[in-house]
């Protein structure tokens, strides 16, 4: 016999019992009616009210016969708690979606360079078969993505290199070939392959520190026996390509066959490539929506 699905969470009940109790008192202006709605003893509700007033050091109600009226402090508290209640209702709705195997929300992070082709291809196909899943997107360098994954700001990330921590798991999806990008008039522009040592004296354009490709660029140049003279940094690979085409320097980027203004030359020495990986946290419970997108990406690209 199948195990019953757990009841969908009521966030207000789980986390905000005093909030719910006070709003019931304010709504009914009658402790008996409020207690009946909440399913608690009136004496328990009365004691809670006394405890709140003592804790705040302010009178929240005045008693009028069998009824109560909110003081100005009580009315101010009511308005503040109503705003909190609205936020809890939204959170409850989000959690309910994530308990529903056919819906939910997932936050996906990805490298800037993957935003023009790979990520749109993945999302177009996934959303075609899972239109009910809400996907929020976050773009940045590998350091930003790994920190966001650690903090729980994103659920999955497409990154390179792999996060270096046991709190993450990562699966390789594909290998990107890296190329030397040069201006059309560059002396090496007609080469079919190039050794990085041939451009040791050139000005380089690069991504800022904190980006995996910047680290890879420095590592490749070190293997070729030099430290690159980086004259300009940008988080936008299109900007790097454009300035390279204009003659401001050379750069190392992932191959992009549709880039027409600059020349891409495969790097023969040292071997130049990078893995693209899908990473996720091993320390948090995975929602159904996150698991769905993770399995889809792994099945599609591995």
UniProtKB/TrEMBL annotation:
Pfam family membership, one: LysR_substrate
InterPro entries: LysR_HTH_N, LysR_subst-bd, WH-like_DNA-bd_sf, WH_DNA-bd_sf
GO molecular function terms attached to this record: DNA binding; DNA-binding transcription factor activity
GO cellular component: protein-DNA complex
Domain HTH lysR-type per the UniProt entry, residue ranges: 22-71
Keywords carried by this UniProt record: DNA-binding, Transcription, Transcription regulation
Annotated family: Belongs to the LysR transcriptional regulatory family.
Protein name: DNA-binding transcriptional regulator, LysR family
Species name: Actinacidiphila glaucinigra
């Amino acid at each position: 016999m199948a195990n019953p699905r757990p009841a969908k969470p009521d966030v207000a009940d789980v986390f905000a019992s005093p909030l719910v109790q006070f709003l019931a008192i304010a709504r009914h202006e009658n402790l008996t009616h409020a207690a009946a709605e909440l399913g608690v003893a009136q004496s328990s509700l009365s004691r809670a009210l006394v405890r709140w007033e003592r804790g705040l050091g302010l009178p929240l109600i005045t008693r009028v016969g069998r009824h109560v009226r909110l003081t100005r402090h009580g009315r101010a508290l009511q308005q503040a708690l109503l705003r909190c209640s609205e936020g809890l209702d939204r959170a409850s709705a989000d959690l309910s979606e994530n308990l529903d195997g056919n819906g939910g929300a997932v936050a996906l992070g990805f490298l800037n360079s993957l935003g023009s082709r790979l990520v749109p291809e993945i999302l177009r196909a996934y959303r075609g078969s899972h239109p009910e899943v809400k996907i929020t997107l976050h773009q940045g360098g590998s350091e930003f993505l790994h920190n966001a994954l650690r903090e729980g700001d994103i659920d999955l990330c497409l990154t390179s290199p792999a996060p270096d921590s046991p709190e993450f798991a990562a699966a390789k999806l594909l290998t990107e070939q890296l190329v030397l990008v040069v201006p059309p008039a560059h002396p090496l522009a007609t080469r079919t392959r190039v050794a990085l040592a041939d451009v040791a004296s050139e000005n380089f354009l690069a991504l800022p520190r904190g980006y995996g490709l910047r680290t890879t660029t420095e590592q490749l140049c070190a293997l070729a026996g030099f430290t690159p003279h980086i004259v300009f940094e940008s988080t936008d690979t299109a900007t790097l390509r454009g300035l390279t085409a204009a003659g401001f320097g050379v750069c190392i980027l992932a191959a992009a066959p549709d880039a027409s203004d600059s020349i891409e030359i495969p790097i023969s020495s040292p071997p130049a490539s990078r893995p693209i990986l899908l990473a996720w946290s091993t320390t948090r419970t995975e929602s159904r929506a996150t698991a769905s997108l993770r399995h889809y990406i792994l099945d599609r690209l591995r």
